[in-house]
Design goal:
Elements: H1 15-28, E1 36-42, E2 48-54, E3 58-59, E4 62-68, H2 72-79, E5 82-89, E6 94-104, H3 107-116, H4 119-127, H5 137-150, E7 162-176, E8 184-191, E9 194-200
Antiparallel strand pairs: 1-2, 1-5, 3-4, 4-7, 5-6, 6-7, 7-8, 8-9
Helix pairs in contact: 4-5
Bound molecules: flavin mononucleotide (FMN).
The site of flavin mononucleotide has 16 residues, from strand 2, strand 4 and helix 2.
């Protein structure tokens, strides 16, 4: 293996700080849903699936998202916690990829986040058995009305299957669009408390 020295022109030592800065810049440039990203999971035997989800913050070096743990993605993560994500902001010509392990956040973090949602989203979380077959839209709307009646006059509890997930990245790639398709790519690999950086060919 060729020993490649770390590039001196990497955007910085901490890819998550750069990610957070780029996300802010994308929002400032008026990007449409800059916080939406693709989350890829896989079954234990390696069959992949991917879908869009929303970014809910970065806490202690782990990316937050919220979902239903009984969903397809939730079941795949339960049997195989490795996941990959990608953000792309065309307004900036930048892409961020991350790979790592997904863990469930604490019940108190999920409770706190659920409590901050508006009531109709809370009721929707009860109404939708995410990823399960349903016969008609009427059935879904009836489930929503059922949840509304159940929680009439009191706070909506967090459904046990609903919660915050944390992706703990061990690899992050920052991609910057360049002229003549000579894009810049910096791969950051977790090494103890810091990151080892390698420039990759585009
Ligand atoms: C822009 C966008 C944002 C979404 N955000 C979320 C989200 O934060 N959490 C979620 O569970 N599903 C979200 N969805 C729906 C997912 O893409 C997907 O349909 C759902 O999670 C079920 O996926 P699964 O069957 O693979 O588990 C979002 C969809 C779009 C298009």
């Amino acid at each position: 293996m060729i020993d490649v020295p770390p590039p001196s022109d990497a955007p910085g030592p901490d890819p998550l700080a750069i990610f957070a800065m780029w996300l802010r810049e994308a929002a400032e440039r008026g990007a449409c849903t800059p916080d939406a990203f693709a989350l890829a999971t896989a079954t234990l035997d390696g069959r992949p699936s991917v879908r869009m989800v929303l970014y809910k913050g970065l806490v202690d070096g782990a990316l937050r998202l919220v979902t239903n743990s009984a969903s397809r993605k939730g079941q795949e993560i339960a049997s195989n916690p490795s996941a990959a994500v990608v953000f792309y902001w065309p307004e900036l010509g930048r892409q961020v990829r991350m790979e790592g392990r997904v863990e469930r956040a604490s019940a108190s973090e999920s409770d706190e986040y659920f409590a901050s949602r508006d009531r109709s989203s809370q009721l929707g979380a009860w109404a939708s058995a995410q990823s399960q077959p349903i016969a008609t839209r009427t059935e879904l709307e009836a489930a929503f009305e059922g949840a509304r009646a159940r929680f009439e006059g009191r706070p909506v509890e967090r459904p046990p299957h609903w919660g915050v997930l944390c992706l703990v990245p061990s690899r992050v790639e920052l991609w910057i669009s360049g002229a003549h398709r000579l894009h810049d790519r910096f791969l950051y690999e977790r090494s103890g408390d810091s990151w080892r950086v390698t420039r990759l060919a585009p």
